[in-house]
Amino acid sequence: MDLMERIRELSKGMHQQLVEIRRHLHQNPELSFEEFKTTSFINQTLQKLGFDQLNTLTETGGFIDIHGKAGGGKLIALRADIDALPIEELNEVEYKSKNQGIMHACGHDVHTTCLLGAMIILKELQEHWKGSIRCIFQAGEERLPGGASMLIKEGVLKPNVSSIHGQHVMPLIPAGKVGFRPGLYMASADEIYIRVKGKGGHGAHPHMNIDPVIIAAEIITELQTVVSRHAKPSIPTVVSIGKVIAEGSTNIIPDEVYMEGTLRTYDEEWRMRAHELIVTICNEKAKTHGAQCEVEVRKGYPFLLNDEDLTKKSRKWAEDYLGKDKVEDLEIWPAGEDFAYYSQQIPACFYRLGTRNEEAGITSMVHTPTFDIDESALITGAGLMAWLAIQQSSESTTGK
Ligand code: NI
Questions:
Q1: Tens digit of pLDDT for each residue in 299-316?
Q2: CA neighbor of 103 nearest in space, from 370, 398, 290
Q3: All domains in the chain, ordered by first residue
Q4: How far away, in angstroms, is 365 Cα from ligand 1 center?
Q5: What is the pLDDT of residue 397?
Q6: pLDDT, position 396
Q7: DSSP letters along 76-127, please?
Q8: Which of 21, 168, 188, 207 holds its CA 20 to 30 A away from the CA of 146?
Q9: Separation of 212 CA from ligand 1 center, angstroms?
Q10: Torsion sign over Cα 308, 314, 315, 316
Q11: Ligand 1: distance of its center to the CA of 231 in Å?
Q12: How far is the CA of 334 from the centre of ligand 1 (A)?
């Protein structure tokens, strides 16, 4: 039986085991950088499977290297994030979250399970592949500064990790399928905080006040010109204001208006220029009306670049493993993701694992209280990750 077939069989054979791991993780979610029980569960599972314990670089999470026994090859990495979100789960399922107000609503339980599954396969087939594979269980994806940036600082990519793969659930893609996108994929995500300070008073006498509501309205509209008049059409950019608080009344003009929003884009130089523009627009608008403005643009994760070469190769390998009809092209997706930090350092490929099952009503998006997955996706996720890792680590180190 060839290697690919053996991986398919192994991943199918371990489905029940993976479901149990995933459900345990799902029932016991922990917030970013507080994944202590999750980390010890991963360690317990590793022990049962005959692996060493995780190497630790941060308080929670860790990594472990597996070495192929076919000689040669190179060191590559696989990454799974392990943290959950502050959301109260609304699914009435037997594996519902036991931790009030915390839920694996972004599928990181699935990512962790699939990486453990891939490790079982890699160990089983150790004689048949080359190189070394670093399996990273990363803490704190959902919270700044992001576990990825901390791990990189602590040397997780040293001495010479040559590439990295990460997979993420995608409820828009049916279970059994996956998606790839070479090049720009996810956006840099920065937070905007604005406070317009005018002078409140009676709503009947606006000429005696400095109305911050009108100024805020102008700012909201003008900020869209950052996208429509300043951004190069070739660089996707989004500015959204999602919070506006003006606590006046029918006949009261408030003293101030508070706003929050986000800037998403795909170019570092333009990102910094956009920050300046946002600050200038807010201050100028306020000044025109004799008001004042406090504005802060807080930096989040950078944009995520999928290495063209690595991602095209991986897409092809996925087609070989799953079949052509099971691999889709992804659209650009301007959410933030701290895997972007790895992509700034080494060739990276962040791909999507389909988890949708329309018939079973499993369609909710990530970060919602009803998010869930079709658990058959665990078979695809574990098997494909092992297959991609073996292909990439076994490549000769000559050339690129
Ligand atoms: Ni996520």
A1: 999 999 999 999 999 999
A2: 370
A3: 3-185+303-393 (3.40.630.10), 188-301 (3.30.70.360)
A4: 11
A5: 56
A6: 67
A7: EEEEEE--BBS-------TT--SSTT-B--SSHHHHHHHHHHHHHHHHHTGG
A8: 21
A9: 37
A10: positive
A11: 28
A12: 13
